[in-house]
Amino acid sequence: MEVVIVEDAAKGGALVAQAIARLLAGRPDALIGVATGSTPVPVYEALAALARRGEADLSRARVAQLDEYVGLPPDHPESYRSVLARQVLEPLGIPEGSFLGPDGTAGDIRAACEAYDRALAAAGGVDLQLLGIGTDGHIGFNEPCSSLTSRTRIKTLTERTRADNARFFGHDVGQVPRHVITQGVGTILEARHVVLLATGEAKAEAVAATVEGPLSARCPSSALQLHPHATVVADEAAASRLELAGYFRRTFAGKPPWQGI
């Protein structure tokens, strides 16, 4: 696993944006898996800045959604489709027709999950999947003890995750849906390159478990140890519990723009 330690969230966002821009330079219609939450926002902001300067061409890029709340209509301001429209599609000039996502309002959610996996495969698979990480090591909404071979499916959110997400719903946990559709761990691992971005001291324990801990369903993100091209980009705070932090700094220092990623 590649582990790149950066100074802060802005530096991490810029680094991942550069990696995406390089991918699109070689494959203009690449399918980028995008995530919601506060962690990836610096990536999208840095990508938009690259596009404005003519240093990234996103005109043919495609994006794929990682997860979605069940029961929220697509036009609800906190549906992930709406969030991604505001944070990704509109700022980057990516047309709606280049967006893939699961249907969280379908009458048959199981069928909708299976249909989304088929759609990803039909699109040629995800070229680069951007991930955040939960304080308990969840990726997407694959909570602890999720199957490491799981496919896109419906999941029940833990109270901890609902509390973490309440800030997006006026700090009212009662407004946070209880169920989501999420790409499974197995689905995520099919992406050609997986990039996990982690910032802040609250993520330090999860990052250490992901990188240095045992492979365990208790920490779903540890499954990235099995991936042939997984990169963890962590700021100093998120990397603070890594025993091998010094090794990672020596390995990736002085290689801008971090060709390894």
What does this structure look like?
It comes from Streptomyces gougerotii. The record marks 146, 153, 155-156 as: Part of the allosteric site. This is Glucosamine-6-phosphate deaminase. The protein is of the alpha/beta class and 261 residues long. The protein contains 8 helices and 10 strands. Helix 2 runs parallel beside helix 3 (80-92). The model has no long low-confidence stretch (mean pLDDT 93).
Name some characteristics of this structure.
261 residues, alpha/beta, Rossmann fold, three-stranded antiparallel beta sheet, seven-stranded parallel beta sheet, 10 strands, Glucosamine-6-phosphate deaminase
- Strand arrangement, major sheet: 1-10-9-6-2-3-5
Count of distinct structural domains: 1
Mean pLDDT across every amino acid position: 93
Q: How many β-strand runs?
A: 10
- Helicity range: 25-40%
Q: Which architecture would the CATH scheme give at its second level?
A: 3-Layer(aba) Sandwich
Q: Given the helix and strand composition, which structural class is it?
A: alpha/beta
Tell me the CATH topology: Rossmann fold
Order of helices and strands: EHEHEEHEHEEHEHEHEH
Sum up the overall morphology in one term: globular
Figure out the total of helices: 8
Cα(first) to Cα(last) distance is 10 Å
EC number: 3.5.99.6
Protein name: Glucosamine-6-phosphate deaminase
Pathway: Amino-sugar metabolism; N-acetylneuraminate degradation; D-fructose 6-phosphate from N-acetylneuraminate: step 5/5
GO biological process, one term: glucosamine catabolic process
